[in-house]
TrEMBL record:
Cross-referenced CDD domains: USP_At3g01520-like
Domain UspA as annotated: residue spans: 27-184
The protein, known as: Universal stress protein A-like protein isoform X1
Pfam families in UniProt: Usp
Gene3D superfamilies given in the database record: HUPs
Originating gene: LOC108815554
Amino acid sequence: METYVDAIGVDTEATTTMAKQSKKKLKVMVAMDESKNSFYALEWAVEHLRDVISAEPETDQAGGLLTLVHVHPTYLQYIYPSGGTASAVYATDSVPESMKKAREESTAKLFTRSLEICRGKMVKTETMILEGDPKEMICQAVEQTHVDLLVVGSRGLGMIKRAFLGSVSDYCAQHAKCPILIVRPPRETSTSSSTKEHKSN
C-alpha cells in the first residue's frame, strides 16, 4: 500500500489510523540521501508520526524504532584508452581509498544532520549503511528488518527522467513488503513563481 502526503502536512488516512493505534509503537524506516527532499521527508516523519514512534515516559511505554537507511551505489572503475575511439574498459569494483574516505565523510555528515532532526523527540533511532542499487537495497532492508512503514521523499523527476532513470519511490511502492509513505516536497508559492518569471524577462 502506498500513500502520498504533500508539503502542507495534512494527515492521510493511513497515518491517522496509525496514530489512533498509539498503544502499538511502530518500526519506521526512512530512506536518506543528500537531497533536500530526503531531509524534508525525515522532518515530516518525525513530526507527524511521533505518536507511533516516540516513547512515553509518563506511562512507562517504550517507543518504536526509527531506522535511517542510506545506500552507497556500487562504484565501478573504468580505464579509458588514450587516443583512438575505443570504449572504456571495466577495471575493478574496488573503491579507491580517496573516494572511499570522501564517501565516509559525506555519510557521516548526512547522519549527523539527520540525527539532529531526531534529537529531543524521544525517538529511538538507528542508522544503516548499505551498498548496491538503492531501490533494491532499501526493499531488502525493509524485508530483513520487518519494519511497519517505509518513508521516502519524492525526488520530483520529470516524465523523461523517470522513464530513463526510474524512481526509488516508484520501485519501493511496487516491491517493498510494507506500507510506504511518499512525502512530496514543498511547492513553490505562486508569488515566488511569478517573481522568477519576472526576473527571467
